[in-house]
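Could someone model DQA with this protein?
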Amino acid sequence: MKPVIERGSIWVLNGPNLNLLGEREPGIYGGDSLADIEAHCVDAAHTAGFTMDFRQSNHEGELVAWIQEARTAAAGLAINAGAYTHTSVAVHDALRLLTIPIVEVHLSNIFAREEFRHRSYISATATGVVCGFGSHSYVLAISALAARMDL
Ligand code: DQA
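Reply:
Sure, complex below.
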């Protein structure tokens, strides 16, 4: 077990259908399960000196409640809102309340896919966006959050 230097908590929030990663369209999203991704995120966060809070919900309102909670509990937030990325003004409005760094994450390159995936309600609220690197997108997002907090 690696020592954790407490710099606060990085939160990773996952939206609908991401609980089925590994089984869901592996040609697009890869073979890692959400539990595999969580393990990579915990490692990346601990290496950077943070604890990790990793959650998934299929419900828009639950994601909104967690974003509100992150406002005071998290040092940084990575969010893959799944399909709510392209539809949710409620998620957008909740993210606007945060002053911590936010990274929008996607496994797939949403800009290389269907046109309806090109619009994101998350991007305008985010410090930055990582997409297209499969499960490694999450590790890149945590590394970017940690670097941002070093500034
Ligand atoms: C996704 C891309 C979204 O368009 C899609 O609805 C998802 C997953 C991704 O990680 O690539 O559920 O956010």
